[in-house]
Hints:
With about 280 residues, this protein is α+β, with helices and mostly antiparallel strands.
Amino acid sequence: MGGYQWITGPDLPVxxxxxxxxxxxxxxxxxxxxxxxxxxxxxxxxxxxxxFFDERIYKRELAARCPGVELEFPVTLSHWTFRTTCYLDAxxxxxxxxxxxxxxxxxxxxxGKLYNYLLLLDLAHGKLVxxxxxxxxxEFVNSTLRPEERYTFEIVADRxxxxxxxxxxxxxxxxxxxxxxxxxxxLGMYEAALVHFLGGEKQVVREVRVRGQRGVVGTQxxxxxxxxxxxxxxxxxxxxxxFEDHARRLLxxxxxxxxxxxxxxxxxxxxxxxxxxxxx
Length: 280
């Protein structure tokens, strides 16, 4: 993801999600044909260069050999005074999304990154490519989700306390972001915007003391919406597992009044206030 930029006033883009230029949503057959062409070049490059170069070297060589490759294709997200630009490794043929890695093995984190670009660009198909191994590792990443689905969600706030300082401000900021960006994106994007709107890194990201049986055992970095009130975003599609249970355990060992928990599911966004000493 690209570096963050903060802007104000009339320089704001008109659209909250703005690609470098319009892209074309490819069918499965179209993307399959495009992927075959791209991967033939990738295999040749890997055979010639070996497996020890940085990913940028492989990408640049691919762009030199394969027509229609746009490296570091930008997508800008904006909301009011916040803007950040992230960069897809390669857009091919105006609608083929490719992410390249040079790592020991591909993980769900890498898959999630590419999936995030598919949502931002409203593309159905992408390809994840890893060139670090003895042979090229590659896999398809697909999305059937369309923008209208990401903007159709309900708010559930029956366990949200209006009395906790900063709660109303946090809720208003999150709902505004979701109205502009929709659900389903990487949590880090929402979090970066929230930190900006809540006063910036120095104000929001703080060290909180952690107490053990015999006194303070260290500090933990947390995001605070107000003094004594932390916030946490998750993206569970089910009940959230034991998140609340572990959050209450955390509260027993830190000087916090509450944790404001916001779960951003695809179609349901749940606001929950977890207060220290409650429900123990």
